[in-house]
From TrEMBL:
Entry keyword annotation includes Cell cycle: no
Complexes and interactors: Part of the multisubunit transport protein particle (TRAPP) complex.
Pfam families according to UniProt: Sybindin
UniProt lineage: Eukaryota, Discoba, Heterolobosea, Tetramitia, Eutetramitia
Keyword Cytoplasm: no
Domain of life: Eukaryota
InterPro entries: Longin-like_dom_sf, TRAPPC
UniProt protein name: Trafficking protein particle complex subunit
Length: 153
């Protein structure tokens, strides 16, 4: 990740496109306010629909990584979809003219591994349900991972 790029948010959606986890790490806005959750839910449901459309026109429909980055100005939205349909979405700010996030694949793999270890293996977790408040170890570990990447730890 370049020195000015910072991960501002992480979202996890279930295979139906429902938001099951949100974590904000950093914001560039002058008033330190994030958009309300409805904005994020709209964005994520739109991305879910785009993934489904991309699947229909993909040369290999069995390849579930159709759409990886969406670039808007100096903000990059990176997605990683698992074979089970769970999507991890990170918002990276400060990309400048870059259209990619260095070490993106490793970052997404690390987040996915934390999800498997601390959410999926949690005996109290119910598939496809929000886990914001009942998987503290995941929240702590992913926060540390992102802070290390952002250089803010």
């Amino acid at each position: 990740m370049s020195s000015q790029q910072k991960i501002s948010s992480l979202f996890v959606t279930n295979k139906f496109g429902g938001l099951i986890f949100t974590k904000h790490f950093y914001t560039r806005s002058s008033n330190n306010q994030q958009p309300n959750e409805n904005v994020y839910m709209t964005l994520l449901s739109t991305m879910h629909s785009l993934h489904l459309m991309a699947q229909q026109i993909a040369p290999n429909p069995m390849d579930y990584q159709y759409m990886e980055n969406i670039v808007m100005g100096d903000t990059i939205i990176c997605t990683h979809q698992t074979a089970t349909g769970v999507k991890f979405v990170i918002v990276v700010e400060g990309g400048g003219n870059s259209t990619d996030v260095p070490h993106r694949d490793q970052l997404m793999t690390d987040i996915y591994e934390l999800y498997v270890e601390y959410v999926v293996k949690n005996p109290f977790y119910v598939d496809d349900h929000p886990f914001q408040n009942n998987c503290k170890e995941f929240v702590d570990r992913v926060t540390k991972l992102v802070e290390d990447r952002n250089g803010t730890s």
